[in-house]
């Protein structure tokens, strides 16, 4: 029963505050130092990454806060649950693909140098790529809205595809989401390893990542550190969830209390 749940809302509030502060600072620093860089490649993708995460926080947190504030008496409606599950999946998939896009762009700069950034309408091309990433992520994340259902998971404050139901629609949705995420992670990690190997093996390639005519390079040290940390954190935090989703889809548990799943 929902009333039997005894969980503190402090971690959820702290997580929301830190996420809001982090995204706000990231966007603020980029805008404040806009004269030190041009709005191309990494910076466009980075803004897209922050926007994706910010949207998720603004959609998920009000519902989560209501659940905790009401001592779990507030019930999440099926419609709200579907919306939450979509945004949760959308944020994870879009963030992963955006990081994969940044890594791909970094690899291209590494191999062919700054000539990549001399293309006519370069900024519009990257903005178009970002929009395509969001569209693809939305399609992957919305599959269960048409052929499956959503489920409230313990402690009753978040929703995702109902892998406990065992219906073909839910299994297909969960597998499609999970396998897409796993493919993105494998691609990004593999390409990062290739970048590290090639850049340290060939100093000439490494010079392609830095533009001496600007205060900050395209993929200077701080950018490379950001990518390394992002990839590591995504693999550690998102990977087990993706593996669990695949496992839950293949070995479906018997439906229990439909209020939430532990």
How would you sum up this structure, described in words?
With 262 residues, the chain is mostly helical. It has helices spanning 10-32, 41-69, 78-112, 122-141, 143-147, 168-201, 203-207, 221-250, and strands spanning 150-153, 158-161. Helix 2 runs antiparallel to helix 3 and helix 6 runs antiparallel to helix 8. The longest helix has 35 residues, at 78-112. The protein starts with 9 loop residues before the first helix and ends in a 12-residue tail after the last helix. The relative contact order is 0.13.
Give the gist of this structure.
The chain is mostly helical. The chain has helices at residues 10-32, 41-69, 78-112, 122-141, 143-147, 168-201, 203-207, 221-250; strands at 150-153, 158-161.
Question: Which helices and strands appear, and what pairs or packs with what?
Answer:
Blueprint: H1 10-32, H2 41-69, H3 78-112, H4 122-141, H5 143-147, E1 150-153, E2 158-161, H6 168-201, H7 203-207, H8 221-250
Antiparallel strand pairs: 1-2
Main pleated-sheet profile: 2 strands, antiparallel
The helix count comes to 8
Instruction: Give the overall pLDDT as a whole number.
Output: 77
Low-confidence stretches: 212-217, 253-262
Give the overall silhouette: globular
Share of helix, binned: 55-70%
Estimated radius of gyration: 20 Å
Q: Can you count the beta strands?
A: 2
Which descriptors apply to this entry?
single chain, 262 residues, two-stranded antiparallel sheet, 8 helices, 69% helix, globular
């Amino acid at each position: 029963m929902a009333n039997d749940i005894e969980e503190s809302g402090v971690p959820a509030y702290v997580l929301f505050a830190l996420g809001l502060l982090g995204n706000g600072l990231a966007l603020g620093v980029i805008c404040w130092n806009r004269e030190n860089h041009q709005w191309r490649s990494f910076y466009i993708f980075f803004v897209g990454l922050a926007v994706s995460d910010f949207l998720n926080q603004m959609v998920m947190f009000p519902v989560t806060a209501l659940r905790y504030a009401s001592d779990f008496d507030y019930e999440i409606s099926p419609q709200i649950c579907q919306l939450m599950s979509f945004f949760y999946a959308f944020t994870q998939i879009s963030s992963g693909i955006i990081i994969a896009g940044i890594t791909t762009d970094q690899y291209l700069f590494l191999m062919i140098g700054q000539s990549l950034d001399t293309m006519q309408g370069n900024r519009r091309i990257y903005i178009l790529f970002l929009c395509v990433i969001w569209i693809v992520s939305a399609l992957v994340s919305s599959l269960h809205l048409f052929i499956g259902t959503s489920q409230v998971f313990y402690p009753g404050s978040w929703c995702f595809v109902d892998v406990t139901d065992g219906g073909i629609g839910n299994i297909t949705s969960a597998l499609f989401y999970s396998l897409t995420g796993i493919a993105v992670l494998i691609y990004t990690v593999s390409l990062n390893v290739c970048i590290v190997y090639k850049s340290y093996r060939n100093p000439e390639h490494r010079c392609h990542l830095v533009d001496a005519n600007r205060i900050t390079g395209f993929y200077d040290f701080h950018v490379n550190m950001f990518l390394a940390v992002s990839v590591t954190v995504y693999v550690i935090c998102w990977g087990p969830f993706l593996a669990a989703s695949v496992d839950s889809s293949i070995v479906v548990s018997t439906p229990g209390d439909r209020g939430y799943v532990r």
